[in-house]
Amino acid sequence: MDFLSALERPPLVLGVDPRPELHGPKPLVHLRRYALELFEALAESLAAVKFQLAFFEALGPEGMALLFELASAARVMGLPVLFDGKRGDIGSTAEAYAEAYLDRFPGSALTVNPYLGLDALAPFFRAAMRSGGAVFVLVKTSNPGSGFLQDLAVEGRPLYLHLAEALAREGEALREGPWSRVGMVVGATYPEAVRAVRDVAPHAPLLLPGVGAQGGSPLKGKGLLLAASRALFYPGGRPDLEGAQEAAKGLLSALVE
User: Fold this and answer.
1) CA-CA distances (angstroms) from residue 159 to 140, 162, 169, 196?
2) What's the chain's average pLDDT?
3) Which of 17, 154, 165, 232 is the most exposed place for a label (fewest CB within 10 A)?
4) CATH number at residue 101
5) Domain that holds residue 167
6) Are 82 and 111 in contact (CB under 8 A)?
7) Dihedral angle at the C-alpha atoms of 9, 237, 64, 123, nearest 10 degrees?
8) pTM, whole model, 2 decimals?
C-alpha cells in the first residue's frame, strides 16, 4: 500500500483519540472491539485512519500494543494509516522516529514539527520516499493560539506561508504523479489559510484537522484530507457505530468549495 492512494478515496480521515473512561469496566477490550467494528463500518467513506499517538502512549505498554494492532488491522482492511505524533528532532533521533513510524509501517504517514528547521525534516522525507509513505508538516494548526508564531509577519507575509513555500520546494523532489510525499497540516478552522497554502503548494496533500467538534468546515478540493476525531469516533460523546456512520455521511454531503 502506498499512502498517496488515500488521495483517490473519499476525503474523510477518521481520527482515533481513545478515551478509556467511555468503554466500561474492561476499557481496552471494548475499545479494541469498537475500533475494529468502526473501521469496517466506515471503510468505504474514509481516506485514512489517523491515530493520535499521545492517547495510546498514555495507556502504557498495553496502549502501544493496541495501537500497532489497530494500525495493522486498518491496513488489512485497505485503509491507509497516519500516525499523528508531531515528531521532530535532529540527526539520529529524527532517523529513529522515521524508522519507527515510516520504515516499520511502509505506506503510512507521520505528522512532524518543523521548528528545528528543514535539515531536521530530511530523515522523515527520505523515509517517506523509500517506504511509499508521506510526511505531514505542521504549517498552520487548528488551535486558536496558532497565530502566536505561525502568523508572524515576515517580509509582509505570515510565517506559515514562507514555510509552506519552502516545503513545496522540498517536496518537488518527492513528487510521484500529481502529488508530493511532503504534505502539510493546515487547520480546517482557517479556510483562508487553506486556500493560501494551496496557492503556493499545488502538489502537496493537505491534512485539515478541526472538522466537526472544533467547528472547521468540511472543505472540498483535490488533495484535501479532512480529519475528524470526536465527531466520528465518539459521536454524541460516546461510542456509537450508527451515529458515526450518520456523521460520516453528513460531513461528506456537506463538502463546500
Assistant:
1) 9, 5, 16, 12
2) 95
3) 154
4) 3.20.20.70
5) 3-253
6) yes
7) 50
8) 0.96
